[in-house]
Design a protein that fits this description.
D-Maltodextrin-Binding Protein, domain 2; Arc Repressor Mutant, subunit A; 287 residues
């Protein structure tokens, strides 16, 4: 409540009185309030959902009526993974600001899986499909996850044919704040399967993991945007393709309660860039 009051430039008491007045007018309780916790009631969730939809419709209507005359301004705070964000998100800041110089653009490139609502992000770029109903998710580009290695590695240690074979291989893992993510995801008989792998090397940086795979150190479970060129040239070979997830797309996500014109414009720019036939030809061609 205090954070919301600061954002709306009013006191907590004034905000509380406005909520009380709204509840009285509607004749329902919107919030459960205690000294330590503030949660929505079922009626509150329903009312918020309708308000979100109305705000989204209003914003789309305004931008559709005045696309050229309404000045684009304000802040756009974007969260993205470091490797992808550095190469394919922040790299396009110049083009966006050239079109919309009134926007204050800010990037946070981190592997932290932050909550956009709690952290107040306008837009999050994520690798993998998002199913949280609290967020609006838009596909930016096609992507898959593949297990791959160099031909030399496979010749020396053998080619895994079944998921169980991964237990006998040195597998790269992502290390995030001392938490080693050793689970690789697959699809078997239409069901999602998580396989715990092991290996003697891990890192928090995806670019380093790809380099190690290209050096022949181990098997890697990486995105096609990272290793597409190496797969096409034969430098890396994919294995266990019949178990690969059908999609692990690159998506843009923003909170459903916080529609942002700036976020929508940045999404549209990224989609135009990624859809260009030659864009991914330098090594990150989605399958």
């Amino acid at each position: 409540m205090a954070r919301a009051a600061i954002k709306e430039k009013m006191t907590s008491g004034m905000l509380g009185r406005r909520i009380d007045a709204l509840e009285q007018r509607l004749g329902v309780k919107l919030l459960h309030r205690t000294t330590r916790l503030l949660t929505l009631t079922e009626q509150g969730r329903l009312f918020l959902k309708h308000c979100d939809e109305l705000l989204t419709d209003l914003e789309l209507s305004e931008s559709g009526l005045f696309p050229d005359t309404t000045e684009v301004s304000g802040q756009l705070l974007v969260l993205a993974p470091p490797y992808f964000g550095r190469e394919h998100v922040a790299a396009h800041a110049g083009a966006f600001l050239a079109a919309y110089p009134g926007v204050q653009l800010s990037f946070n490139l981190t592997n932290d899986f932050a909550d956009p609502v709690q952290e107040d992000y306008d837009l999050c770029i994520r690798i993998g499909n998002v199913i949280d109903p609290n967020f609006v998710s838009t596909k930016l580009a096609t992507n898959r996850r593949v297990v791959c290695a160099t031909p030399a590695y496979l010749e020396r240690y053998g080619t895994p044919r079944k998921l169980e074979d991964l237990a006998h291989h040195n597998c790269l893992a992502v290390n995030l704040q001392a938490d080693r993510h050793r689970d690789w995801l697959f699809q078997e008989r239409g069901q999602l399967v998580s396989v715990k792998v092991d290996g003697n090397v891990d890192c928090s940086d995806g670019e380093v993991l790809v380099r190690w795979a290209r050096d022949g150190l181990c098997l890697a479970w990486r995105s096609t945007w990272e290793v597409g060129a190496q797969l096409a040239s034969g430098e890396l070979v994919s294995v266990l393709d019949e178990y690969a997830l059908p999609s692990f797309n690159i998506t843009a996500v923003y909170p459903r309660h916080k529609p942002s014109r700036n976020a929508r414009l940045f999404i549209e720019l990224l989609q135009r860039v990624y859809e260009a036939p030659a864009y991914w030809s330098n090594g990150r061609l989605p399958a």
